[in-house]
Every structure is written in C-alpha cells, then in structure tokens.
C-alpha cells in the first residue's frame, strides 16, 4: 500500500484564520498541532517516511516540510495549477506510474479530516488493498449519517462482501447525488446509505484506465506525464473538474466497492465543526480570556490573545485574527466562503 497525502486547498470556510498563505490544514487547531501533522504522525505508526507520498502545490510543500522536516522531498508531487479533485487524483496516479509503481495499490489520504481511533485505519487500509488487488475495482469509503448533510454525495450499500475485524466492505448498489434530497432522506431511514468520504484506493494503472474510459480529455495529458512528459505543460491542458465526473459513472455500473469507515470521521469543514470537536474533547480555543453574560455555547477565538466578551449571545462564533474578524451563528458558518468570495472580488 502506498499512502498519498493530498492537500492543496485553502479552506475558505475557516476564514479569517485559514488563508492561501496558511491554509486550515496547517493551522494548530488539534492540541497545538495541525491536521497535516496529526495525519502524518498517524501514517508513521505503520509507514516509514520514504513510504509516504505527498501531493500539494509548491507553496504548501514548503509549509509541510517546515512542520514535518522528515518528509522525503523526492516523494512530493507538485500540482503546478489548481485544477480540483479530478485532475489532482489523476496526477497522483500518473506520478506513481512515472516512478514505476503502476501496479502497486495506493490510497489517497485527505488531510483536512481526522480518523479516531487512529489505529483503526490500518485494518481499513489492509482491506482496501486486498480488494483493490483481487477485484481490480475502484475502492472508496463512507459512513452511515445520523442526519442529512448537505453539499456531499452518498452511496447505497449493496451486497456485503466481507466483515473481518469490524471492517465491512460492500458492493456499491448506486450513487446518490447531493441534490437528490428526497432520495437521501428516504434511504437514511432504510439504513443502506453511506455518506461518501473518498479514500480513493486502486492501482495507478487501473485508475488511469477509468480516466481513459470516462474522461479521455484528462487521460491523454496524464499519460504523457506518466511517460515522462513535462508536468507543468501537460497538467495545464486539463480542464477543472471533480472526481465524481468519473466515479459516479463507475458506481452506477458496478465498478466500485465501498468500505464502511471503522473509525469516527471528523471533518473540519466549518467553524461549527471545530466548535463541536472542541466541546467533545473539552478543549478551549485560544484567547486572552472570555466573559459571557446571559449567554452560553459560544466559540470564541482570539489569535492575538485579546479578551472576548459577549452579552445575551448563544451559539455564535467569534474568530479574531490579523486577517479580520468573523462573527456568525454557528449554524451559518458553512457560508463563510461567501465572505471570502466578496473580499476577493473587492465587494466590500
């Protein structure tokens, strides 16, 4: 198994702390460590530094190396442009083929999530590797949601193929798009729905064959990279797009399997999610102190160490940093990216 940590986004929903120069996965939000550091240490429980790969852009590669000096530099794949998940995943496969690892199974590890308990991921990885080799199918993952989460896609569980040491793997019966709200709610009551959490697992050669079938316009530049072509020149030819442009078709024709996560999946997608994690772990966000009068359940963070006070407020988020100040109801922090869009457009 080849683990590939993939990161390159900014995490605009975590403004004003998360910025292009210091994205959320490098912020010290988990007991003083970044999500990148936590996930690296998790993989180091099984793999040596020369067995772990990283794909990111050149700026974030420097941050990653400053936080984890033992990263093997020749194992860092650089995205020369931001093209979204579809081209990025293909680039990881192409780079591995280029290194002569086309028939070895790899797994993408998203950096902005936590998996707890950490040791449970290794049985998960072993199962994914086994079925990737035996079935030649695309392997992904998901968990049974307790409520409808918007903005994400879902998979329907089919036949149970294995349940070893608490790791269950199923055939995928169907793909459910994030916009099929009624269908999502219907299947939540049936217990056969999984919220899609990726962990793309396959051989690089197998993944590129999927691209050849469903996105030949991506496949040709990626194969040129795999055969030794200039990464910058060839990657520039790919149009932006999501991995679902390919995988939703694979799911619907029986070309994939899904592992039900044997661990808790903690997604740091919004400040509300961070607040929930801190409450559960009884961790307090940094500040110079807080004073709350006639209010509770607020999440108050001061990067500069200022005292934050509220009167008559409940379930709000206040984030103070050198880049700005955010004040929002917790339930609305999923809209913070809209603020960044307006700032970037000059609409102040």
Please give a structural write-up:
The chain has helices spanning 35-44, 58-67, 85-98, 120-135, 181-188, 204-214, 216-226, 231-235, 244-252, 271-281, 336-345; strands at residues 2-6, 53-56, 76-78, 106-110, 113-116, 138-143, 154-164, 167-176, 193-202, 256-260, 264-267, 290-293, 299-302, 308-311, 316-321, 324-329. It has 348 residues and is of the alpha/beta class. It has a five-stranded mixed barrel, surrounded by four helices. It has a three-stranded mixed beta sheet with strand order 13-15-16, covered by helices on one side. A two-stranded antiparallel sheet has the order 5-11. Helix 3 (85-98) packs across helix 6, helix 3 packs parallel to helix 7 and helix 6 (204-214) runs antiparallel to helix 7. The longest helix is centred in the middle third of the chain and has 16 residues, at 120-135.
């Amino acid at each position: 198994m080849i683990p590939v940590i993939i990161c390159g986004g900014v995490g605009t929903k975590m403004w004003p702390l998360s910025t292009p120069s210091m994205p959320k996965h490098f912020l010290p939000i988990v007991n003083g460590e970044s999500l990148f550091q936590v996930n690296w240490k998790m993989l180091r429980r099984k793999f040596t530094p020369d067995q772990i790969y990283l794909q990111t852009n050149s700026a974030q590669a420097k941050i990653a190396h400053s936080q984890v000096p033992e990263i093997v530099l020749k194992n860092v794949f650089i995205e020369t442009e931001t093209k979204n998940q579809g081209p990025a995943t293909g680039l990881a496969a192409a780079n591995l083929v280029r290194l002569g690892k086309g028939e070895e199974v790899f797994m993408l590890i998203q950096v902005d999530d936590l998996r707890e308990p950490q040791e449970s991921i290794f049985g998960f990885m072993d199962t994914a590797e086994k079925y990737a080799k035996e079935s030649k199918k695309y392997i992904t993952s998901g968990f049974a949601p307790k409520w409808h989460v918007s903005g994400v896609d879902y998979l329907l569980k089919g036949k149970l193929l294995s349940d070893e040491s608490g790791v269950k793997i199923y055939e995928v019966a169907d793909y459910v798009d994030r916009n099929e709200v009624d269908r999502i709610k219907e299947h939540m009551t049936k217990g056969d729905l999984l919220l899609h959490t990726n962990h793309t697992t396959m051989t690089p050669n197998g993944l590129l064959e999927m691209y050849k079938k469903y996105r030949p316009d991506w496949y040709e530049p990626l194969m040129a990279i795999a055969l030794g072509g200039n990464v910058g020149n060839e990657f520039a030819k790919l149009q932006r797009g999501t991995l679902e442009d390919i995988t939703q078709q694979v799911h619907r024709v029986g070309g994939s399997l899904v592992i039900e996560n044997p661990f808790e999946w903690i997604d740091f997608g919004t400040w509300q999610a961070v607040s929930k994690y801190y409450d559960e772990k009884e961790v307090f966000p940094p500040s110079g102190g807080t004073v709350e009068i006639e209010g509770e359940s607020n999440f108050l963070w001061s990067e500069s160490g200022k005292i934050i006070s509220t009167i008559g407020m409940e379930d709000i988020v206040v984030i103070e940093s050198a880049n700005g100040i955010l004040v929002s109801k917790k339930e609305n922090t999923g809209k913070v990216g809209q603020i960044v869009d307006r700032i970037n457009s000059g609409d102040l």
